[in-house]
Amino acid sequence: MIPSRLKIAYAFSGIVALFAFVAAGGGIFLPGLYRDNEFVKAAWYGNDLVTLFVIAPMLLGALWLAWRGSARALLVWMGLLVCVSYNYAFYLFGAAFNAFFLAYLALFALPLYAIALAIFEIDPDDIGSNFGSRTPVKWISGFLAFIAIPLAIVEIGQIGTFLFSGVLPQTIVDTGHPTGVVYALDLSFVIPCLLLAAVMLWQRRPWGYMLGAMMLTKGFTYGLVLIMSAAYIAGFSLQGKWDPLTPFYVFIAVGSFIGGLALLWGGGD
Question: What is the number of domains present in the chain?
Answer without folding.
Answer: 1
